[in-house]
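Changelog note: in this version the structure field was regenerated for every chain. One regenerated record is shown below for reference.
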Amino acid sequence: MATSSDSKRWIMREVKKIPYGHPKRTPGKFMRKVFNTILSRWAYSCSSNSLRIWLHRMRGCHIGKGVYIGRYCFLDNMYPEYIYIYDGASVNAESMLLTHFNPFPTYQKVFAAEVRPVVIDENAIVAVRCTIMPGVRVGKFAVISAGMTVEKSVDDYMMCTVKQEMKQISIKALI
């Protein structure tokens, strides 16, 4: 389990192929899934930010210092160790960070079943009700506006908002 003091030393996990569908789990993996689900449910509605962060760290999420995670946020329950939230970042209420996509075997010619890391970099803001898809990196001081579904990485000092299409606006000069 990573602590907040070693956020600069985290080793980023590689993209991993996973079996299609829902394969049987070993007893150890089954118990880990149950443990993650319980901790995730407690963190989901917990009123204390510090306790929410502690619960997510217990699950295996990499979370830095001074991070805010809002109530009712869903951090992937199958592969929490692929979530990296760096110092000073903010993930606001009802947002979702997804690290894996696992379609049924019917779609194996169309979609890859894989796990990709999600990175929320230093001082980035993910506003309310955002969905961050697998493999996305939200750059330093980047801002994702409310209600966005982010499928591509966002550069440092950019603000993403929707007005018919995704726009990235540089805010580096303002900071």
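Spot check on this record: The mean pLDDT is 89. The two ends are 33 Å apart (CA to CA).
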